[in-house]
Amino acid sequence: MIFRWTRSRRACLLSLHIAIGLSTIILSSQVQSESCSLLNEHAEVTFSIEHVDLGWTCRLQVLVDNYTIANKVGPLRAGLSESVYRDLLDRPPLAAALINRLNLGLYKSEGRGPDRFWGNDGEGTEGVVQLVYRGRTARIYYLEGSHDSRLLPRITGKAVVLLKMDLVKDADGIEAMDSTMVSYARLDNRILSGVVSLLRPFLGGIVARKLSKAVETVDRLSVLMRQHPDHVLFVAMDPPPFPDEDLAFVKQALEKLSHSTDTPPSWIPSP
After folding, report:
1. Is residue 225 scored above 70 in pLDDT?
2. Tell me, what DSSP letter sits at residue 48?
């Protein structure tokens, strides 16, 4: 009888401990949820952000609240349709390969997992980019990377980049995309962080140029895709050819863009 009572008591105590533990976890999560938030407005730009994973919200908020350098770039225009522009954003390795083969830049990129990519701009900057939020008109990226230059020691740090995309029409009534970016970067280097007030204009200029150049390069790519689709496809098929899935995407993108031009690709039959 005593044995049964003792065993029952132990079971009750165990259940109580479990209940307390679960309550602590739930309350902690609620407190974290209430204390972590990511605003929709940054640098007077409103981003349409519906929901960001709680863990990422807290992680990004630390950067936004404790940044070393903040930048706003744009709006910058790229002459691509909305669907092609968004699809290219989802394929950094393909976009980088096209840009490289067409001699528009030295970008390189490789996939490192779901929505995670390694990138190198060929000019001293490289790192890993994680897509944190994907919406129709807004995206959020988290970056960890480094920059090498002749003037300063190697700079390493983390950043969050918010991207706002607006569909517009150019002077000829052709679809294009305007991109506005707001970035918050925090340096890892203690020495540089200590003199950041002196270096902020210089470092801020580097970040702004990197962001601007990426969009400007995509715009140059869009010109070639619209005006010289056969050449773009030829380059994509040049040995070593792109994977079949990437080639299919390039063809589809060129066909979409051809509908707004007077010179469709040669492989598309005339109406």
Report:
1. yes
2. -
Cα→Cα distances 165→86, 152, 205, Å: 9, 34, 22
Domain residue limits, the chain? 53-258
> The CATH number of 53-258 is which of 3.90.330.10, 2.60.120.200, 3.30.530.20, 3.40.50.170?
3.30.530.20
Residue-wise pLDDT for 129-181, tens only, equals: 999 999 999 999 999 999 888 877 788 889 999 999 999 988 888 889 999 99
- Asked if 41 contacts 47 with a C-beta cutoff of 8 angstroms, the reply is yes
Phi-psi region of 124 (alpha: psi -120 to 50; beta: other; left: phi over 0): left
Kindly report whether the global pTM for this prediction surpasses the value 0.85: no
Type of residue found at 204: G
> Which sign does the torsion angle of CA 111, 112, 113, 114 carry?
negative
